[in-house]
Design a protein that fits this description.
Layout (H helix, E strand, L loop, with lengths): L5 E5 L3 H13 L3 E5 L2 H5 L3 H4 L2 E5 L7 H10 L6 E5 L4 H10 L3 E4 L4 H13 L7
Parallel strand pairs: 1-2, 1-3, 3-4, 4-5
Helix pairs in contact: 4-5
Length: about 130
């Protein structure tokens, strides 16, 4: 695992951001958290992020809309989605748009770490 990997966590729930941040920093990742897609898009981390972990349902811009927007900008940053409301149609849309993984909350730590390792090693391999 590359210790210098920068992960951006985007979720409108502060407790999810904090828990994910704590988990990933304990694993040696540099983590930046954002409360919205807009906040992330306006940040300096847009240029340096190695992987985005985002909620599906957020106000203003959803996680899938963020992924589509990023691809429209020519960015190939790997995306991992997490959601409390797993929906097969949304999952399929996210994976077709290029997501690496789609995790239902609550998800296990090993599932998230596996997705993250896949995203950082082979961004073209959607697995979950």
């Amino acid at each position: 695992m590359p210790v210098s990997s920068i992960i951006s966590v985007i979720d409108d729930d502060p407790s999810v951001r904090l828990a994910t941040n704590n988990l990933l920093t304990s694993r040696g990742y540099t983590v930046h958290t954002f409360g919205s897609a807009h906040e992330f898009l306006q940040s300096a981390q847009l240029e340096t992020t190695g992987c985005v972990i985002t909620d599906v349902q957020m106000s203003v811009m959803s996680g899938v809309e963020l992924l589509t927007h990023m691809r429209g900008l020519g960015r190939v940053t790997p995306f991992i989605f997490m959601t409390a409301f797993p929906d097969e149609a949304v999952r399929d849309r996210a994976l077709r748009a290029g997501a690496i993984c789609f995790l239902a909350k609550p998800f296990s730590t090993p599932a998230l770490i596996q997705c993250l390792e896949t995203a950082l090693s082979d961004p073209g391999d959607a697995t979950m």
